[in-house]
Amino acid sequence: MKNRNFLVINGPNLNRLGKREPGIYGAHTLEDLEEELVSFSKELLLDISFKQSNNEGDLIDFIHEAEGEFSGIVLNAGAYTHYSYAIRDAIASVDVPVIEVHLSNVHAREEFRRESVIAPVTIGQISGFGFDSYKLALQVFHNQQKGETL
């Protein structure tokens, strides 16, 4: 059986879920998200780990350290999505597939949020479905391991 370990990385301000702009991001916390994803991953027979940082260098280190340990990364890089060429280069430097996720529909928000500098080096982007964005990413990884596609 293939390695069924996946890493969920959350970037800046996601530790403020439940407090930060609840009209956009909802009232649930990062801990709520992690609990929900643990439950969902058990249904898919996946093992998941979580990392969160507000610092760009930490996110880069998490991506580098994932190589050889995880089969895929679910990444919400927060605002770094729109301008961090360093995170883009970190993704491109590892042999680990990455799916970019966002809680809100970034394409329906401010214009600067519509551009992702990391999208070209990820296998896909999922946005606008709240916590389900993460679940959809895990489902994609699960389907790929079974040889299926959506």
UniProtKB/TrEMBL annotation:
Pfam families: DHquinase_II
Pathways involved: Metabolic intermediate biosynthesis; chorismate biosynthesis; chorismate from D-erythrose 4-phosphate and phosphoenolpyruvate: step 3/7
CDD domains, sorted: DHQase_II
Keywords of this entry: Amino-acid biosynthesis, Aromatic amino acid biosynthesis, Lyase
Coiled-coil parts of chain: none
EC number(s) stated in the UniProt entry for this protein: 4.2.1.10
Full protein name: 3-dehydroquinate dehydratase
Sites marked Transition state stabilizer: R20
